[in-house]
Design brief:
- The protein is of the alpha+beta class and 166 residues long.
- It has one domain: 60s Ribosomal Protein L30, Chain: A (2-Layer Sandwich).
- Helix content is 28%, strand content 24%.
- It is built from three helices and seven strands; from the N terminus they run H-E-E-E-E-H-E-H-E-E.
- A hairpin with a 2-residue loop joins strand 1 and strand 2.
- The longest helix is centred in the middle third of the chain and has 23 residues.
């Protein structure tokens, strides 16, 4: 079963790739590495959840926000390389967690995205990771996710026109 069929089997649909909120690219490709900019938990162009984990949101809500941010990242990857099946390896996932100063379960929040990557991609989804606390994130988002992904060389995108900035 290909990766996109696995998403469907899990009842997940990739959203349209989110547009940058400022002056940056959603991804940069160098060789076979795709570097993704930070992804927020947008759904239908709106922030799904806002606030801080450990204050107005709990760990489960943080995990859900991480999953939604991951789906946005996968959407950007698909737009960049044409198919998720071209992913050779998820190299690194970084998750920034907006949380109260006493909150220390950032790794549990990041597991929302990490576990889903392994569920979709198997061994190719296992990755190095950073889960880091942040006092605040853009638009009061509870999480921001960034990734580095190794993709197959065949048909590598060399020149990508800059996306429209919102």
């Amino acid at each position: 079963m290909n990766d996109e069929k696995k998403l469907e089997a899990l009842g997940l649909i990739l959203p349209d790739p989110p547009k940058p909120l400022a002056s940056y690219l959603p991804f940069v490709q160098h060789g076979n590495l795709l570097f993704l900019s930070g992804m927020l938990p947008f759904e239908d162009g709106k922030l799904l959840l806002s606030g801080k984990i450990g204050e107005s949101l709990n760990v489960d809500q943080g995990k859900e926000a991480a999953k939604i941010a991951l789906l946005n990242a996968l959407s950007v990857i698909k737009s960049a390389i044409g198919s998720l099946d071209r992913i050779e390896q998820i190299v690194r996932l970084s998750l920034y967690v907006a949380c109260s100063s006493h909150f220390t379960a950032q790794p549990a929040v990041a597991d929302g995205a990490s576990d889903l990557l392994v569920e979709i991609f198997g061994a190719r989804g296992r990755h190095a990771r950073l889960a880091l606390a942040a006092p605040a994130l853009p638009l009061d988002a509870p999480v921001e996710l960034e990734m580095i992904v190794a993709v197959s060389e065949m048909g590598v995108i060399k020149d990508v026109p800059p996306p429209e900035v919102v």
